[in-house]
Amino acid sequence: MSQDQWTAVDQYINNLVIPPDAALEATLEASVAAGLPPINVTPAHGKMLHLLARAQGARRILEIGTLAGYSTIWLARALPPDGRLITLESDPQHAGIARANIARAGLEDRIDVRLGAALDTLPRLAEERQGPFDFTFIDADRPNLPEYFAWALTLSRRGSLIIVDNVVRKGGVIDAASEDPNIKGVRRFGERLAAETRVSATMVQTVGAKGYDGFTIALVTG
After folding, report:
1. What range does the domain containing 153 cover?
2. Neighbour-count burial of 95, counting CB atoms closer than 10 A to its CB (0-12 exposed, 13-18 middle, 19+ buried)
């Protein structure tokens, strides 16, 4: 198996079950034009998030890590008309591009882009009593992943779903001796996840257009 084959299969999936979408395509184009890193979720993973949020019946969604707003738009489209999504972004340029993409998609009334470091913003969400969130998607810097997960759990309820992206790191997650701060952050997150009695969770390996990685899905049970 090769990266070319994984990418070709992803394109087959896109052609099969993900119709062309002007707003989502414009979001990706704006991201490339602005020189943002190509780390947004793939269309297939974006639709997976959308379907999970719909199946959850989510009315309030929290996203940690906005980038250009691609996954934000997928998730917000899963909400009912009176639903609300709060997305956290630390980079002013990224937040500005995301807001423009969200406006183009006609979703300003459902999405609140909060600018600032997530570890500063998350306590404010708790103070504002913004939770509980029915669904949380974490796709931000990995060194702080354990802390993001802890806050996501605090802002959840029994029955909430927490999805965490990029937890396999091309298999690097199994390297206990790694000095890579991203891998160290994911491993600390894994240890916290394994010890957390209030969730039932699994990790799934993935391959595709973005290479070899994986995600965590955690159901809050207590």
Report:
1. 3-220
2. buried
